[in-house]
Design goal:
- The protein is mainly β.
- The protein is about 0% helix and about 50% strand.
- The protein has a single domain, classed as Sandwich (Jelly Rolls).
- It has strands at about 5-10, 15, 20-25, 30-40, 50-55, 65-70, 75-80, 80-85, 95, 100-105, 105-110, 120-125.
- The radius of gyration is 15 Å and the shape is globular.
């Protein structure tokens, strides 16, 4: 049986505005592989879409979007992954890898969640 050292990182609560959007960013820098997000949608609408970004993670210093969920309000784990192989035409290939984060903050943004909803997110980081 394989065993992995990991840490759990709780984001501040995402509280949406009247327009149904809100976001939260980790307080600490994340170092490791993003294995999963545990999401508790509370009473958010079933149209909620979460976007996960590495703050300043793109080559030009902007935020790098790494994961966008389908519209849902079902609590549970989400497993963002990068495809390890890309076909020549740019479509996803085979194999998946956890997303490496090298000392940056992670932001989770909610959209279409409904007015003044609270969403809780915990990250599981492989060390």
């Amino acid at each position: 049986m394989l065993s992995y050292a990991f840490s759990e990182v709780d984001l501040p609560a995402i509280v949406t505005s009247a327009g149904g959007a809100g976001d939260a960013t980790t307080v600490t820098l994340i170092r490791g592989g993003l294995w999963a997000l545990d999401v508790d949608f509370g009473t958010a609408d079933n149209t909620t879409v979460l976007t996960v970004s590495i703050v300043g993670g793109a080559a030009d210093g902007s935020d790098r979007t790494i994961f966008v969920t389908a519209a849902s309000n079902t609590d549970g784990l989400r497993h963002p992954r990068f495809a390890t192989t890309k076909a020549a035409d740019g479509t996803a290939g085979t194999g998946e890898e956890v997303i490496a984060i090298a000392g940056r903050k992670v932001k989770v943004a909610a959209a279409s969640a409904g007015s003044t909803k609270t969403i809780s997110v915990r990250l599981f980081i492989l060390q």
